[in-house]
Write the structure tokens for this entry.
Amino acid sequence: MKKLNIYSFILSSAILLVVAACSNNDPAPVTSQGVIYKDLNADYAPLVLNPAGPPSRPTQTKKYTLFSFKTGAIVANADSSKNTWDIGFQSTNIILNINGNVGVKIVQGVFNELKTAPADGYVLDVYNATTKTRTFAISASPKPSDVAATNQWWYNSGTNTSTIISPIAGQIFVVKTANGNYAKFEILSFYKGAPATVNNLTDLDRYYTFRYVYQPNGTTTF
């Protein structure tokens, strides 16, 4: 009986060690609900009304606000040549970090239900040094009404009598980040405070609210 008790003790201890090892090595669980980042300033400048033509923004900087999914924070423009950021926002333009080989795959669906990053199909921004032009993986133009929503556009621009920027419902952006991990994000609003009903005469635009999930352990599971 004593020998049996010793064996039982050794077996129980081994099981506890295995469980502890698994617990220490397993990555922290990732929630598919996402973190909401509110009111990212995408080069806001007040509109100057012009009775003879369209309004202008003479004070805009034309600089992008750079964002890192890893840190969940804005990155200084001085670090734009580094791999410390993933995406950048300026007006309706969204850029990817070319130096970091950041790619995006656009998926149509329900944000919380997208549990796995696609294996392939990621598109990168392309910069032409000769013409000094950039081809955007995420289109900076509104989606034409006759084009399927599964294409690269992120917003509609309303009707002939409205210029409200409205994110396309269910448009999910899966990003292969600068450090080789994966994130998914969804744009919720282009207006400060993310108003449920936008008044484009009073609500300040160029303020992105979006939600995202970042997977820090290199797997494709959210």
